[in-house]
Specification:
Layout: H1 2-16, E1 29-31, H2 38-55, E2 58-64, H3 72-83, E3 93-99, E4 104-110, H4 119-135, H5 139-155, H6 175-198, H7 202-223, H8 225-247, H9 249-279, E5 296-304
Parallel strand pairs: 1-2, 2-3
Antiparallel strand pairs: 3-4, 4-5
Helix pairs in contact: 2-5, 4-5, 6-7, 6-9, 7-8
């Protein structure tokens, strides 16, 4: 009798749950979109149950029909922290979120597992294990493969073939879009670099170090590994050599000659960077099975099919 009541609650919940609300945590497999077969749910639950009993890592599946007006990453973050997935001390939870009508996927990873289940691995799991199966409407195979891959990544046994193939970049984004994104990102980095080059004292070298991770990552996903490596080398050595040049007699003479124009440009750029810094420094938070008190810091990856 309890089994039938549970099924009835599941069916009713799938009808009334809104994507703008965090649904009730029913178990390790929360199929509110009703896309998984009973056999698949049992297999997935067994995989997750076994892994949790051996490691205390808490991996949970959530399928919904639509995100509504919600942003995928914000919604996944909200669900994760509302359910408190993972153990409180370890923050070792993982949420696999699937929005069927939107054809979007999010793997949200707790703080404690980010070193074992990296953003790149999550992205690869979405592309290689989930998206191909979902395009064939084989949700059972896609979710089972994803769960196995997530567990394998944590245990160190899953090695996706394309984990270092950065040259693909944004291969799903049309070529013109890559150019637009590249111009936008490099313009922002260029403004900060300009400020760093012509600033004096520690602030100049602080900006130099601060920009290194941005130059080391963003160009890879836009232009690919080869071009990104060239951009990074130009920035790293170019900045140092240019600062040395500005410290020379010839460099100082050039600075004195063009100092009025440089001061005006530096003031404008500094105003822009301070506004950008202040506007981007915010951060929003948000039956027998429950979360263990863990939280997510926003790690993971998103994708679609």
């Amino acid at each position: 009798m309890r089994k039938y009541i549970f099924v009835l609650v599941l069916l009713l919940s799938s009808l009334i749950v809104s994507a703008t609300e965090v649904p009730y945590l029913m178990g390790r497999v929360n199929d509110y979109a009703n896309i998984l077969s009973d056999q698949a749910k049992m297999k997935i639950d067994q995989l997750l149950r076994t892994h949790e009993s051996e490691t205390s890592n808490q991996i949970v599946i959530l399928t919904i029909q639509s995100l509504g007006d919600e942003v995928l990453e914000d919604y996944a973050y909200n669900v994760f922290n509302t359910w408190h997935l993972g153990q409180q001390v370890k923050d070792n939870g993982v949420l696999i979120l699937i929005s069927v009508n939107d054809k979007k996927i999010r793997i949200e990873v707790g703080y404690g597992l980010e070193g074992y289940l990296t953003d790149a691995q999550c992205s690869s799991i979405i592309r290689n294990e989930m998206a191909p199966n979902f395009r064939r409407d084989d949700y059972d195979a896609g979710v089972i493969s994803a769960v196995s891959a997530v567990i394998g990544s944590i245990e160190g046994s899953y090695k996706p073939e394309d984990i270092t193939t950065f040259d693909e970049g944004f291969e799903s984004v049309p070529f013109p879009m890559n150019i637009v994104m590249g111009i936008f990102v490099m313009s922002i980095l260029g403004i900060f670099t300009f400020v760093g080059l012509f600033s004096k004292g520690c602030s100049s070298w602080f900006l130099f170090v601060f920009l290194i991770p941005f130059y080391a990552t963003f160009p890879i996903f836009i232009f690919g590994l080869t071009i990104a490596a060239v951009i990074f080398i130009i920035y790293f050595f170019g900045f140092i050599f240019f600062k040395i040049f500005l410290g020379s007699k010839k460099g100082k003479n050039i600075l004195e000659k063009y100092s009025p124009k440089l001061a005006k440009g530096l003031a404008s750029a500094s105003t822009f960077t301070s506004k950008s810094w202040s506007s981007s420094s915010g951060w929003s938070s948000g039956g027998g099975f429950s979360g263990g008190g863990g939280s997510s810091g926003g790690g993971g990856a998103s994708g679609g099919w």
